[in-house]
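2024-03-11 09:14:02 DEBUG pipeline.ingest accepted 1 chain
2024-03-11 09:14:02 DEBUG pipeline.ingest length=261
2024-03-11 09:14:03 DEBUG pipeline.predict start
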Amino acid sequence: MRTSMISLGALLLASAAPAMAQEASEAAEPTPAVTITGNFGATTDYRFRGLSQSHEHVAGQGTINVNHESGAYVGTWASTIDDTYSLPGYGDVEVDLYGGYTKTLSNGLGYDVGLLYYFYAGAPKLNNTDFFEPYASVNYTFGPANVKVGGNYAWKQSGTADQDSLYLYSNVAVTVPNTPIPLKLLGHVGRSDGYLGKFNLDAGDENYLDWSLGAETSFQGFTLGVSYVDTDITSTRIGGDKFSNTKGADTTVLGYLTYAF
């Protein structure tokens, strides 16, 4: 039931001031319990935990989220990928389906827990590419900065070559005050262990680090960003740096442009 905030005196003036009555009515509209958000855009190189998934070429990407006021959400994210060099046998599109719960507390602390499902459209069933991955993170906002730490864990599944995988990471985002345009600085470091960690070719070392530094600006729904990305993956197994170049684990500077709706 909608509760009117218009007084009897305002009703008497309504015929002379319809705009005021309309504004009051709009102000009384309740916030919807469910909202739909999303974005679409492109990046010059789709990097997943430091590794190129698009053979260091442009990838189109987009996401749609359905959010409930309680903090529960479901969504999907998709990106074009390279089926020849980066992910042979995985098809041309990666689709991530996810659902979870997120909450921001009054003291600036927040958390997020959920479950991811990686689905590779176009991949033959026999390739067993798809897998689940639960995730959890906590974040803290103080002043213009937000610090986030989290982890993703995939148990042994067909899509992880019957080996578990653990990814731990930390992100930092700082909004720079008093700039002519909105400016945000971004930092990230992550560690892959297990299934993905095998890309590090040091003998007996099945883990690697990835890190990035970036900056982005936003205007009327558009976000333009640039990021420096690198890993500590070795490249001595097959002829100098050929392995890291083939897998897209070498240093790169990528750019991206998205539009949110």
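2024-03-11 09:14:41 DEBUG pipeline.report The mean pLDDT is 85.
2024-03-11 09:14:41 DEBUG pipeline.predict end
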